[in-house]
Fold this protein.
Amino acid sequence: MNEVPTRRDVLTGALRPGGAAAADHDHISSAVVSVLPARRDEVMARLARLPGAEVHHSNASKLVVVLEGPGSGALGGMLAEISGWPGVLSANMVFEQRLEQEI
């Protein structure tokens, strides 16, 4: 019996054309993280320890971060986690791309 897709299926990337699984793709995203200047170094250190995250540019209150993960849901979860950290004012996705893996 076919189940009707849920909103969560769409948001987490569980649905794929042709029935391909979400794990068949890698996603890459860029994000801008706004921070309190006094906590910038602390946030940068936490990002350095976060698997799949890399800071590419920073100034006193903004960080440009590249995130990699298995799907849109994973990247959204990473941004939600980052936005809750002490010293973080906002974490916003700027760009996302799904990369097809060679089999």
Q: What stands out?
A: The mean pLDDT is 82. The longest helix spans residues 72-83. Helices lie at 7-12, 40-49, 72-83. The longest strand covers residues 88-100.
